[in-house]
From TrEMBL, chains A, B:
Molecular function per GO: DNA-binding transcription factor activity; transcription cis-regulatory region binding; zinc ion binding
The keyword Repeat appears for this protein: no
Matches recorded under Gene3D superfamilies: Winged helix-like DNA-binding domain superfamily/Winged helix DNA-binding domain (1.10.10.10)
Species assigned in the record: Mucilaginibacter gossypiicola
InterPro entries recorded: FUR, WH-like_DNA-bd_sf, WH_DNA-bd_sf
Keyword Iron belongs to the record: yes
Keyword list, A-Z: Iron, Metal-binding, Zinc
Cofactor (UniProt): Mn(2+); Fe(2+); Zn(2+)
Protein's name according to its UniProt entry: Fur family transcriptional regulator, ferric uptake regulator
One BP annotation, GO: negative regulation of DNA-templated transcription
Sequence positions that bind Zn(2+): 96, 99, 132, 135
Amino acid sequence: MKELEKQLQEKQIKPTAMRLVVLDYLLKQTSAVSLTDMEVSLKKTDRVTLYRTVKTFEEHGLVHRVEDGTGVTKFALCQPDCTANGHHDLHIHFYCTNCKETHCLPRTHIPEIMLPDGYDRQEINLLVKGLCAACKK
Amino acid sequence: MKELEKQLQEKQIKPTAMRLVVLDYLLKQTSAVSLTDMEVSLKKTDRVTLYRTVKTFEEHGLVHRVEDGTGVTKFALCQPDCTANGHHDLHIHFYCTNCKETHCLPRTHIPEIMLPDGYDRQEINLLVKGLCAACKK
DNA sequence: GCAACGCATGCAATCGTAGTGCATTATTTC
DNA sequence: GAAATAATGCACTACGATTGCATGCGTTGC
């Protein structure tokens, strides 16, 4: 359990009981989760507290927001090199149209994008939809 | 005005008064619009009717859905080669963090994406966030 | 040890968008 | 022109995001 606390403190997040529970939960996930997912899995937790917890995590570079086109915001743990100053999650997000799960594909990288003159890039979001490896079988 | 009707009929959409108004509005836009945008601009229109109108348009390949990470669905006219059988809007969508507008960049194209083994691609969504040409000045 | 402070938590409530059901109106077909 | 079909408008529901406020808890200074 000390390990969890350490992870929070490395990101300058005070390790409260709630936060440890949420971090522990996130570490166990294989796909990005919505607030509702968390709320259902972690009984006895208030939705708003979860909302603020992941918000804190996000602000400190521990989780990143995943937009998968469902209109529901999902969250997943960041790569270790993310900080409060900026996220570096330049990987592909994959939404499976069958199982409805959204996976981070951290081994992938986003190719160079050419923008028209005058456009200034700050962030890139690449979402691929299709069938995941498990559902394709 | 006959021109508008023709555009609808080419996509097998019956040209009603409402639909002509919506198409006319969409043709005048330089960025993707939300239902609320339409509702505000087109007075006297019911939100649900708009909702169903763009849904019809989408099903017939006249408009495509734009996901810009704001959680609000936006719509923009398709390229001419889209049909009811499939959209071919493989261009970049650009969300300006300053003016909050979302532009289609039809001249761009999405580079080849390498997915891990087992993943089956059906659709790609590439969203770039930053400053648009107008806001960068 | 305790008082004061700040931050975290939980509850209630609000807001905005998406979506459905149904009655009414318009349009097409014969 | 009447019947059938499709489109429209209104009422209402569902749900996620978000804020305000009161309470709880942990830390610090004395």
